């Protein structure tokens, strides 16, 4: 699976064919934010479907703003873009004013005492939240890994757990993970890989995984995962509904 950051860079460099793939990877996050925003903005015209559509354009805007050299994740740019687009949809900034009439100089003093400071000192740093957002994202990933590891502990033996951990925690390929886990054949590793993912569906930790994946039950995992799954899709991709859900945890 290509990361959000790599997809954003490819799209920014003109490879528009990767737009649907990036949207598929961030869509559930946008849906979660849209539902929460709509609940919190009951007094405004904030329809969930309109917010989700705005989230798509927010993703495109975030792609253009994404600069990997700044050290921030693509999700950070997306969050800022979502906030702007959602506010526009909800009519939070519904009035327009002539800037030349209402503008103030940033050098204007706050009080009569020049030592107190100027309006410029009150401007928020748009990058100030990035470290906190990065910590929040890292905490989410650790929580998802902990929940998955807790499920694996009571589900399978050490070799199967090592296989899953190497693939989804370390990002290794099936071949690399199988070798590190002690498998002598790739076929055996593939068989155990599918077995573990299917068993996760009936694991007691399903609720914890659901909450982490879809934002506290905003979206139902089983029903969403089953959409688009058929015998034909199984033959084409080799993935069941449960496997599709587990793959999203990475």
TrEMBL record:
Residues 33-83 form the RNA polymerase sigma-70 region domain. Pfam families: Sigma70_r2 (PF04542). The keyword Transcription regulation applies. Gene3D superfamilies: 1.10.1740.10. GO terms for molecular function: DNA binding; sigma factor activity. The keyword Oxidoreductase does not apply. InterPro entries: RNA_pol_sigma-70_dom, RNA_pol_sigma70_r2, RNA_pol_sigma_r2, RNA_pol_sigma_r3/r4-like. One of its GO terms (biological process) is DNA-templated transcription initiation. Keywords: DNA-binding, Sigma factor, Transcription, Transcription regulation. It comes from the Bacteria. PANTHER family: SIGMA FACTOR F FLAGELLAR. This is RNA polymerase sigma factor (Sigma-70 family). It comes from Intestinimonas butyriciproducens.
